[in-house]
Amino acid sequence: MCFLCTFLFSFVLVNAQDRPTKDISEVYAGGKVNGNEYTNDYFGLTLLAGSGQFTAGGFVSAEGRRARLVDVEANPENWQGKFEIAVLADLLAANPLIHSPEQYVRAVRHQFEQQGMETEKAESPTEVAGLTFVRAVLKVSDSGHVHHRAIYTIFLKGYILSLDVSAATSEEIEQLVAKAVRFKSKTK
Hints:
The chain has helices at 2-17, 24-29, 101-114, 170-180; strands at residues 31-34, 37-40, 45-48, 53-54, 59-60, 66-74, 83-91, 118-128, 131-142, 145-156, 159-167, 181-183. By secondary structure, it is of the alpha+beta class.
């Protein structure tokens, strides 16, 4: 009897993990902007634009493996008030060499370093709206101004879901994410 229960439990667990992931085009199309709010029911995500505005920067790649789901930008006259938040989704199955959010964030951080950015905080776990993401923060120098850029990543529903956030300081990035990002479901 014990063997039978174990067998049935493992069958259910394997089948639950093998459920097909929703196509990225459907995930992208399911995202909706309503005024100052973006929602994506697939991920249970709500993104509030705050003092920024949603842009037309979203797209799905031609291969259908990744998408920039939405972009928010604030471009006030004051350099210190500028920020951007982008929500990105990459199909996990299309990235078989990526085994953890830490590995993904490390790879992105190294790409940013090759572009001349300087690491301020290496990969570390952080909570965003009740879910555990991995985050890295870098410094960006542009026309004499120093800005910060952070990547937050989690594996969620068959995707590598990332937030690409920039603001004047790493503290402002943390505040932006805390105010702007909400999740309905806390299940993976």
